[in-house]
Specification:
It is a single chain. The chain is an all-alpha fold. Helix content is 64%, strand content 0%. Helix 3 runs antiparallel to helix 4 and helix 4 crosses helix 5. It is elongated and about 90 Å long. The two termini are 21 Å apart. 1% of the residues are buried.
């Protein structure tokens, strides 16, 4: 398969570094609150409500005397700034997720094309190479949706001296990533 401009710019080390950074980000956010999806949707913050809170903060900053004595202005100010910061982080993450999804779509379409070519070569080789018929049947079942994907197949090509062991290569790739 020819190298493509997007995939040739991405290494397994790059992906591993991103995954590690995401785990570090998760550890850096112990304050996150978990809610069921229904409750999360009910509490969803609309930007107009955040903007209202920011304007109310600015308005009351100049006129604190209008607030009752029990209203904690400093806490309100802190809450507005924290909420704005979290909102901005979410917007950045949404853009990152959109960019990742686009990159995945591009690389995924190339992988699907490549797997079609590989399957065709395996099917042709199965006519003369022992041990490939079962693999090609499993691949056909996956392609037709009549089988559930499982772990990568392990097949040693018998026809070629020094053939490669797909399981060993897959295991090596997993450790390298």
């Amino acid at each position: 398969m020819k190298s493509h401009s997007v995939t040739s710019q991405i290494s397994r080390q790059d992906i591993a570094a991103v995954a590690g950074a995401l785990k570090a980000l998760r550890r850096a956010t112990p304050f996150l609150v978990m809610l069921p999806a229904k409750e999360r949707r009910r509490r969803e913050l609309r930007v107009r409500n955040l903007t209202l809170a920011e304007h109310a903060l600015e308005g009351v900053r100049e006129n604190r005397a209008v607030l009752p004595p029990y209203f904690d202005f400093e806490q309100f100010e802190h809450d507005v700034h924290v909420t704005r910061g979290l909102y901005d982080v979410v917007q950045e993450l949404k853009q990152l997720v959109a960019d990742l999804q686009t990159t995945l779509a591009v690389t995924g379409s190339e992988v699907v094309k490549g797997s079609g070519a590989v399957c065709a070569h395996l099917k042709a080789a199965a006519r003369t190479t022992s041990g490939l018929k079962g693999l090609t049947q499993q691949l056909a079942a996956l392609k037709n949706g009549s089988s559930t994907p499982s772990a990568p197949f392990s097949v040693r090509l018998q026809a070629f001296p020094g053939g490669t062991d797909a399981a060993q290569e897959s295991e090596h790739d997993n450790h390298a990533a």
